[in-house]
Design a protein that fits this description.
Blueprint lengths: L1 H17 L5 E2 L1 H10 L3 E7 L4 H9 L4 H10 E7 L6 E3 L2 E3 L1 E2 L6 E2 H6 L8 E5 L5 E6 L4 H12 L8 H7 L5
Parallel strand pairs: 1-3, 2-3
Antiparallel strand pairs: 2-8, 4-5, 6-7, 8-9
Length: 171
Amino acid sequence: MKNLFLLFALVASTFTFAQESINWMSIEEAEAAAKENPKKIVIDVYTDWCGWCKKMDKDTFKNEKIAAYVNENYYAVKFNAEQKDSIVFQGHTFKFVAQGKRGYHELAAALLNGKMSYPHMVYLDEELKMIQPIPGYMAPAQFEEVIKFIGSDSYKKTPFDDYKKTFVSEL
């Protein structure tokens, strides 16, 4: 019985380590990587106090199939909209702006077109041009639709509502 428990523990720990997770990077790392090997970029704009951001981290981004698709088709960036460090992106320096108790980062304001809500997913094409910012929490199935719609370039020729009618989830 003891050996059976040890075997189970070994298999469970191997499975845990084998799970795929999203390879998050900074916006500067993603910009450099996209210059070397062009890929779309998906940016998770979040804050430390955002409950829905934490739920998306736990439920959506931990999904193994979501992680595998994101890693294959995108450079994934986690960006704290209230971080204090200056960032140079596309030749511009973006800074933190103090405002009340918190403040905001100029890059977050630029990416979100001034609509500061969290979580917010921002999609850039291979040339770092804005495709679409999408606000709000997305469950794994919703997020899968969006990342595949954009990742497959369907957004260039098909309205999202039409795409959804024929979409088949792999989750």
